[in-house]
Structure formats: C-alpha cells, structure tokens
Specification:
The protein is of the alpha+beta class and 290 residues long. Helices cover 49% and strands 16% of the residues. A seven-stranded mixed β-sheet has the order 1-4-5-6-7-2-3. The radius of gyration is 20 Å and the shape is globular. The relative contact order is 0.13. Residues 173-272 form the SnoaL-like domain.
C-alpha cells in the first residue's frame, strides 16, 4: 500500500511530464503504466526520494520513445500534431494559459532533437536539476545545460505570438465560430491575423491540407470549406479547453466525423489554428459525451 500511495501522489505529475515529452496521450499513458510496473518491482524503502526517482524513470522511457516516434513522424502524411487534451473550460479569469502544454508550442518542440526536447521540458517546465537530467539522456550536466539553452533559444524564436488573457482568447474563438457558421467572410478576415497559419492533421486517414495554409484569406476559405463538410442537422459544437486554452470540438453525430480545434491568439486576433481530424488522434476522447 505504501508503494501505491507514493506512486499515486506523483501520477498526475508523471503523466504531465510524459505528455509534454512525447506529445502523445497514448504514449504518456503507456509510460505511466510502465513506470508503475518498475516501481512495483523495487524492494520496499529502497528509494529515498520517490518524486525524483519516478521522474527519472518516466523521462528515460519517454526519451527512448522519442527516437522511434521521430522515424514514424518523418513518414507521416501531412503535418503531425500532438494528440489533443480536451476538458471542460472553467471561469474566464480562472488561470492564465499553460503555455507548456499548448499545441502550438508542442509543435515547435517537434523540431528539437530528443535530447534537446527532454532537457528543455524537464528543466524549464518541471525544474529538474541538470545532474538528474544528465542521467536521463546520458550526457554530462554541462552538456545538458547547453542542450536546454539551445532548445530555449529556438522555442523563444519560433513560439507563436499569443495572449495569456483567457477572456481575450475565448472572445476570438467565439468570433471565429460565428463567422464560420454564418459564412461571414468579412468576419473571418477581421478575426484572423493577416499572417495566420492553419495546420490540419488528417494523417492520411481523412481529407486534410497536406501543407500548412498561410494567410487570412486562404485560411478563411479553407475554414468555410471544412465547415460545409459537416451536416448542420447532425453537427454538435462544443466549447472545450484544448490543451489548456479555449478551443472547439465539432462532432457530426451521424457521419462520425470530428475535428478538434486549438487556437493561438495575439492582440485579439487568431495567429494559429491547429485542426486535428485524424480519427486515431481522437480515439482517446469520449466524443459522444463531450
């Protein structure tokens, strides 16, 4: 029981580490389960600091997963986006947005090497000391410090412009939805940043743009075409938090089609839209009961 209690106290944190390193809900779930099995196999009272030990174990598992995942993602059809984490939204002023779990930032992390990504997540997000990260990636603490520094510079350079004001973010999402559903081209052009980027993840399973769509006019037309693919009589639209920020989930209850939208918002306008339509990426969601 003591082993179970100690593990359960860390479970949420372990899953958070795993998801940010892998970008996959399924991989994060598997990593937590594997960590539990290894924890169970330990002799009682062998670990002085369960939090540090378990963090190292799950980070190693995820670091190993990244190598094979990169090979799979290089063969992926179209843009690869993380599996979304969807939850009911809270009060508008509840919290600032959690940048470390946003789909746009996780997409930037895909451009890092596995060692850079792991070092950045563990140090900058979870405040793990460099010597402990060194055990995970098999480098010296100084080398890990350099990995994290390189990753940090790239993230700062490539991370999307975004607001941390939840109310501003939600208002932009609402305006986007009204314009799309109303076929309001002018409204779309007004809420979309002139340099907005749209990424669609269909994985070759359903129709989706194979390359990012750039610019507000092209994105507006693409969004309207996507909306027309849903039957208004059977389509349900849910306002949900997607990776910590207000987003949208559209479900066609008759055709079984679904799309999860994540947004980046800056100064009242949408700067990035990530649309996940690959059914494999949505399998973990209980879509009929959202």
């Amino acid at each position: 029981m003591a082993e179970l209690t100690a593990f359960e106290q860390q479970r949420d944190r372990l899953w958070a580490v795993a998801y940010r390193i892998t970008g996959s809900v399924a991989d994060a779930d598997d990593a937590v389960q594997e960590t539990w099995l290894r924890w169970q196999a330990l002799p009682a009272d062998e670990v002085a600091d369960p939090r540090a030990y378990l963090t190292t174990v799950i980070s190693r598992i995820c670091y190993d997963l990244l190598g094979s995942a990169r090979v799979r993602r290089e063969r992926y059809v179209g843009p690869w986006l993380p599996e979304p984490v969807v939850a009911a939204g809270g009060p508008e002023d509840r919290v600032t947005l959690d940048e470390s779990v946003g789909l746009a930032l996780l997409t930037v992390l895909e451009r890092l090497t596995p060692a850079e990504r792991t070092a950045f997540i563990l140090h900058d997000v979870f405040s793990v000391p460099f010597p402990e990260i060194a055990e995970v990636v098999g480098r010296s603490p100084e080398s890990v410090r350099q990995l994290a520094s390189r990753a940090r510079k790239r993230v700062r350079a490539e991370a999307p412009r975004r607001s941390v004001d939840r109310g501003e973010h939600r208002r932009a999402v609402d305006a986007f939805l009204r314009a799309v559903m109303g076929g309001d081209m002018d409204g779309l052009l007004e809420i979309l940043d002139p340099e907005v980027v749209w990424r669609s993840d269909g994985g070759g399973k359903v129709a989706a743009a194979r390359l990012p769509v750039l610019g507000n006019e092209k994105v507006a037309r693409f969004a309207r075409r996507l909306a027309r693919g849903f039957d208004p009589a059977t389509m349900l639209v849910h306002h949900r938090d997607v990776n910590g920020a207000p987003g949208l989930v559209m479900v066609d209850s008759a055709g079984g089609q679904a799309v999860v939208f994540a947004f980046s918002v800056h100064q009242g306008r949408i700067t990035e839209i990530d649309a996940i339509v690959n059914p494999d990426k949505l399998r973990h969601l209980d879509l009929p009961n959202l």
